[in-house]
Amino acid sequence: MAGFTTKEAGDEGERRALDHLVRHGLRLVARNYRVAAGPRRHGGEVDLIVRDRDGTLVFVEVRMRRNPRHGGAAASIGASKQRRVRLAARHYLQSFATPPPCRFDVVVIDGGALTWLQAAFTDE
């Protein structure tokens, strides 16, 4: 991804992740869903919200690293990042009278290799 800004590289990673998920039968519902948490608090964001074939709503975090020097892309999804994704997911689900089954997936791209981690974390 040489020559890309961080934003452009992130957008490209999300595009690759979405293409991969769509090839596996998931449908895009929303992209970059953001919610504010309040003054001096980090809000939340979900990179991709997709629906699986069985109706499960899937909140997807996409992480990309050019090299594994700092532990790789999966290692960058710590407890605080998971909290922010859960915050946005809970906010999104408020629009449903009866929320559908949900899960939290992660798509990591290390170098050029893409890995889809289904049910990578839970809504604790």
From TrEMBL:
Organism domain of life:
Bacteria
Q: Which one Pfam family would you cite for this protein?
A: UPF0102
For molecular function, the Gene Ontology terms on record are: nucleic acid binding
SUPFAM superfamilies xrefs: Restriction endonuclease-like (SSF52980)
Q: Which InterPro entries match?
A: Restrct_endonuc-II-like, tRNA_endonuc-like_dom_sf, UPF0102_YraN-like
Q: What is this protein called?
A: UPF0102 protein A4W93_28040
**Source organism lineage?**
Bacteria, Pseudomonadati, Pseudomonadota, Betaproteobacteria, Burkholderiales
Similarity-based family: Belongs to the UPF0102 family.
